[in-house]
């Protein structure tokens, strides 16, 4: 089997944690139907059944304010992100993780990852909430006051930033160490708020591709062992091991700059992705 075929197969396995046909390809109307608690419970039960006794490692996302877990399938933590290559930046509408300043449940959503997750639990001014929109897609648009969770994905492989999590793999290393530096932002209609273009700026430092402006003033990151995320894994386990660093405080970003970024970036990102159900099964959570 050629190296290129191996990489394509590995990438296709990795991608469900990011965006899959099952999570992204439904008719637009379906995304406005609120999933029932019963459906979410069924998804959680399916995840438990499909992972029980099969050796899956700890999963993500999780409540970062709760450090307990029963999953003891350990792996070495990835190096610090400054010692790795940035390979992808994307964001989810609403936070996938819960905790810190993002604890307000957005609801069950459509059952496919959209309109669910967690929102900024703080207060915004009337000026910050003045109507504005960004990044329209078949799943809706972003509006002032919305929350996004940005994933700055890093790889130990010799790679460069690009579209999808497939950019984190290389012909030389199909199983690189992965680290996700995570920052939750709230979108505000304020030209003096943070510029998303600057927050996602990247360049080469000491021979490594780096995200140059990840916030450093949003609290001590919670580091834990987990997996790739996304609604494609609501009913099955992710086989990928990821070291997560999730900052507990929310930063305010100018919604107009998010819209500008969606109109053109090296990652070919143009909308907010859906979220995976919060993992609450102790058998699928690590201890940190």
Walk me through the structure.
With 288 residues, the chain is an alpha+beta fold. The protein has one domain (3-284). 15% of the residues lie in helices and 23% in strands. Strands 1, 6, 7, 10, 11 and 12 form a six-stranded mixed sheet that branches. It has a two-stranded antiparallel ribbon with strand order 2-3. A two-stranded antiparallel sheet has the order 4-5. The chain is globular and about 50 Å long.
Summarize the structure.
The protein has 288 residues and is α+β, with helices and mostly antiparallel strands. The protein contains five helices and twelve strands.
Q: Main attributes?
A:
288 residues; alpha+beta; 6-stranded mixed beta sheet; 5 helices
Please state the structural category: alpha+beta
The major sheet is characterized as: 6 strands, mixed
Q: What does the overall shape look like? A: globular
Q: Which runs of at least 5 residues are low in confidence (pLDDT < 50)? A: 1-10, 19-31
Instruction: Name the helicity range.
Output: 10-25%
Secondary structure blueprint with pairings:
Elements: H1 3-14, H2 21-24, H3 37-51, E1 85-93, E2 104-105, E3 118-119, E4 133-137, E5 140-143, E6 147-155, E7 178-188, H4 196-199, E8 202-205, E9 208-211, E10 222-227, E11 241-246, E12 251-254, H5 255-262
Parallel strand pairs: 7-11, 7-12
Antiparallel strand pairs: 1-6, 2-3, 4-5, 6-7, 8-9, 10-11
């Amino acid at each position: 089997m050629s190296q290129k075929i191996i990489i394509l197969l590995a990438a296709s396995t990795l991608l469900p944690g990011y965006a899959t046909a099952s999570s992204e390809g439904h008719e637009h109307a379906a995304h406005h139907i609120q999933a029932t608690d019963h459906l979410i419970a069924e998804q959680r039960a399916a995840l438990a059944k499909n992972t029980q006794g099969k050796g899956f490692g700890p999963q993500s996302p999780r409540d970062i304010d709760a450090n307990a877990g029963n999953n003891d399938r350990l792996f070495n933590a990835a190096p610090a992100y400054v010692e790795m290559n940035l390979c992808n930046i994307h964001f989810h509408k609403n936070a996938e993780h819960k905790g810190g300043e993002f604890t307000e449940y957005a609801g069950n959503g459509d059952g496919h990852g959209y309109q669910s997750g967690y929102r900024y639990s703080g207060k915004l001014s009337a000026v910050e909430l003045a109507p504005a929109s960004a990044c329209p897609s078949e799943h809706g648009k972003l509006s002032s006051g919305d929350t996004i969770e940005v994933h700055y994905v890093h790889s130990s492989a010799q790679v460069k930033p690009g579209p999808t999590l497939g950019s984190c793999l290389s012909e030389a290393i199909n199983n690189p160490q992965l680290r996700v530096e995570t920052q939750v932002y709230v979108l505000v209609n304020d030209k003096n708020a943070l510029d998303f273009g600057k927050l996602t700026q990247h360049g080469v430092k000491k021979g490594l591709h780096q995200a140059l402006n990840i916030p450093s003033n949003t609290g001590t990151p919670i580091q834990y062992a987990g997996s790739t995320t996304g609604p494609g894994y609501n009913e099955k386990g992710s086989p990928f091991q990821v070291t997560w660093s999730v900052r507990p405080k929310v930063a305010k970003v100018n919604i107009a700059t998010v819209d500008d970024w969606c109109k053109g970036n090296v990652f070919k990102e143009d909308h907010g992705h859906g979220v995976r159900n919060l993992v609450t099964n102790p058998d699928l959570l690590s201890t940190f």
